[in-house]
């Protein structure tokens, strides 16, 4: 409806300041010509809005002009009070700000909509945590938030599940995601999407370097890729191996279908986690997933340049296969 679109334009301009006409058109899924007609309609109704042409032009409200949210429909008013993941606001330090914001919204709502909004707030509660999830370690999101909102790179000391030692990563954050009560940092590492559980971050440092995000890629895009990767990953056998650094490039090319994460410490200067924590220089730790234990025999093509670290049944499988090859040539 045109009235809804006019209100959307008004609120966007109030929140953003000057906005190019083509951007408004894209956001509202109409033509640029329609946006200019809507601007004329707003101006005719007394809204101090004007458009400037040219490279740096756009549509803007007169400085100091504000409006309220009395254009909200009944359903929109109720939707504002269905608060998903209340714990998320506490983790971000926004509980008090949220309460204050909702009180302001309630005061600005059209009088007929207020009772429905109040009933919704009392009758609907969203708890995103799982049943019997057990106690979770405290998560300090302050530094992660700082990097996300200031568009800076992050240096993380991170402990993977099942490991005692920490690894060090330099990442380019897109944002934070709360999934079933667990916070995740969504970031690129070497231009590839990665997911880091916030409660496994042992320390985080915001760097002076500006973030290096992929052009045109937003948090929601990266999260969708990572979410599907986790949910659609076939069941299999998780395997940890160590690879000689001089065979790492070949290993990555040939074993790409089985890799669950990129090898670490192959010269990107992150420090730590470079596969040398086992006391032998020149090795890099890699994780893979095979559909079955027998598929691990593919590792024999790398001879003594690859060693299976775990699980024991895969070590035994590869050792047995190597012994059979040895017997064949005796």
Helix content: 25-40%
Shape: elongated
Q: Over all CA atoms, what is the radius of gyration?
A: 27 Å
Provide the succession of SSEs: HHHEEHHHHHEEEEEHEHEEEH
List low-confidence stretches. 264-279
Portion in strands: 15-25%
What order do the strands of the largest sheet run in, or round the barrel if closed? 6-5-4-3-7
Mean pLDDT over the residues: 78
Describe the fold and architecture:
With 330 residues, the protein is of the alpha+beta class. It is built from 11 helices and 11 strands. A 5-stranded antiparallel sheet has the order 6-5-4-3-7, with helices on both faces. The chain has a 4-stranded antiparallel sheet with strand order 9-10-8-11. β4 and β5 (182-189) form a beta hairpin.
Q: Secondary-structure map with pairings?
A:
Elements: H1 2-16, H2 21-28, H3 32-44, E1 49-52, E2 58-61, H4 74-79, H5 86-91, H6 95-108, H7 114-123, H8 142-150, E3 152-158, E4 167-179, E5 182-189, E6 192-197, E7 201-210, H9 219-231, E8 237-244, H10 248-254, E9 259-261, E10 283-290, E11 306-310, H11 312-328
Antiparallel strand pairs: 1-2, 3-4, 3-7, 4-5, 5-6, 8-10, 8-11, 9-10
